[in-house]
Amino acid sequence: MVKCQACENGHEPSQHKCLMCSKYVHIIDECSKSIGQEEGSGEKRLCNECDKSICCKARRRPAALAAIGPQMSAGFAIHIVLESTVGDRHHGRLGPNSLQLALAHGLMITAEFLLRRGADPNIANASGETALHAVCKFPSRGPSAWYYNEYDLTLMLFECSRDRYKPLRVNARNSKGKTPLELAVANHMPDALEVLLDHGADIAGFVYPAANYVDDELEWIIDVKWRELLGALLCAKRLAKRGYELIWSDALKIMKMFARYGFFEKSDVDLQRSLLDNEGFASRAKSLLVKEDLRLHDLIQLQRPEEVDERVTYQDMFDFVKQDISRFEFDKVGAQEACAVYICEMMSKRFFQSWALYPFWKLIHCRLPLEMCETVLANLKNEDLYHICLATQDQSRDDSKKDVTASVMNCDNNKRPRESEDQMNKTVAIARYTITETKIN
């Protein structure tokens, strides 16, 4: 009799410990009863010492549990399930849970196998979620999940379903009213978003969702948070390119992610200088290519956000971070975090400035022309710009750019004298005092 490691160690086995081991993903005798098979197929016994009713306890058929096994063995495991237990009762088709589990865990080979064996991606589960919801609900957010590409996984689902299940229910809503497109944006998956839009996702009825944050156990990983922020910015940019008009509350949802993940550069810390003065970091950064003609060290040396925008895009940086920055083996974790915070601060600066402009102009009661406001905001950090936006958070959506723009037209900016440098510094000081008061209140 073959025993799994959990049995040998005397621990109570779980379906994950047993069924994710490539040697033992077969079929437990007792599990066969759940789909109408006779007991006694000894050759496909997992382990006599293991809990034989784990499939029944989980209320899933063996195929569904096998779908969460390792990538290399999953196809073999499901082949055994199909040949030995499914039979005519299920007409050779697996229920949607098996496909959705495979997609949710990024098992592309398994998912493709299931689709070609007749799994229907349009069938919804108890929560109203189809296979597309499953792809967009569980992004790869940790080192153990970074072996698959969300673009390839989403595209595979469309291609494998093209003949049999055309069209896919790309705009189907789950029990919470969310479409796959909205889930992709909530989980900051720009590549999945692109595939969905290419295959008919409706942007007219799109409602920008609140962000889904990473789990607490992953929040300490700088790479994950960095990629989440870049993914959110890239999603917003791609939506705008496809015709969606971002509003102020949408932008604020992205800004709140920076606050949640602690990705604001402090005014009293010169991150750029600390990074360049770190010999170990500087040496490593010189060998890392962000893109073909730009090294990480050169990117950090850029002084202004405008220069950064000219040299690198959100897509460039997103692709770079997807490589898993932890493999770069910087000398200290602090250097990793400082690098991520500094680059995110520079790359998102214009985003924060553009959305803080009108709230700031209203905050100072139109005392400055907009051009002067832009100059003032250029001297503030993203955290300051964020708190300016928070100061107007309670205003209704209707009190947005259109109303403020109308007020701007009533201001005779041409008659206002340009301020001296001393006056400008005073205005910046007033702005920072207002921001401090906002934080306290």
Task: Indicate the radius of gyration in whole angstroms.
Answer: 27 Å
Poorly predicted tracts of residues: 1-96, 141-147, 400-421
User: What percentage of amino acids are in beta strands?
Assistant: under 5%
* Structural class estimated from helices and strands: mainly alpha
Order of helices and strands: HHHHHHHHHHHHHHHHEEHHHHHHHHH
Strand order of the largest sheet: 1-2
Q: Can you count the helices?
A: 25
The share of residues in helices is 40-55%
C-alpha termini separation? 68 Å
Number-wise, the strands total: 2
User: How is the biggest beta sheet arranged?
Assistant: 2 strands, antiparallel
Number of domains: 3
Calculate the mean pLDDT score and round it.
72
Envelope shape: globular
GO molecular function: transcription cis-regulatory region binding
Pfam families: Ank_2
Keywords: ANK repeat, Repeat
InterPro entries: Ankyrin-SOCS_Box, Ankyrin_rpt, Ankyrin_rpt-contain_sf
